[in-house]
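Many introductory courses stop at the sequence. We go one step further.
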Amino acid sequence: MRINLLVCFLSIAMAACSGQEVLYQLEGSVVQKDFLIQPNDFSSAYVLKLSNSFLHETRNASLAKLTIYTQKPLAFLLRSGKGVTDYSYEFWRSEYSELLPKLSAMAELVKVKDHATLRIRDAEGRVEEIALNGDNVFHGRVNGTEYDLLEVTFRKTLPNSATPRVSVNFSIALRQTLSFDSALAIAKCIEGQVGMPDVAIVIRNDRWFVDDQSYPWINPFVPVAQLPTWDQYKDSFSYYCSSKSNQTKCTRMSILVAEGGDQ
């Protein structure tokens, strides 16, 4: 017991001396850690050092995510999704435009089984991706359809129960025309790679995820482009895919209609 307390104390002391603060931590088969470091300490070399250390710590985890922030207020805004359930398209545009100039340097590492990729956003907004293990997890191809993984989030479900679980949400954008068949194929592929229950996959034909409450108001790792007009937003749609009893179901969602199917 005394040895464990000493190790814990030394770990806290080392983190304090290095200017690190752990904002959030989730452990188990799914691991998440959010770090806050000083802006002056942010560099590719230091981020790589933290990332490699995290990969060593999570070598037995099925899914893992490390996020490194340099501003605490921005960290809480980005990691909590939108934080509201009832908002308009105009309100989304306002929030996006307000947050855009506040973005700072940050980095994110995502590990899926034996594949791990780091993406780094510098203070000028340039984004670099580095595949540390295996394939780049942020890009894939299924049956000739290319897709981009924009965001992955972990959330505790039934946290107060004797057997708490973690739900996983993937936010996917297609580079090609989105159809039910392509959404279903991608969802089945990702579910097969992850190999765990409580996985939800939202697949869109754009990169904005305006109506997705778990998606942040702005994604700092997605290159800035012209915001969608009302007509573009109105015509956009997504497929919400999930698996239950080994059956994958994808439902098409839009602001006007909802129609679905399963297989």
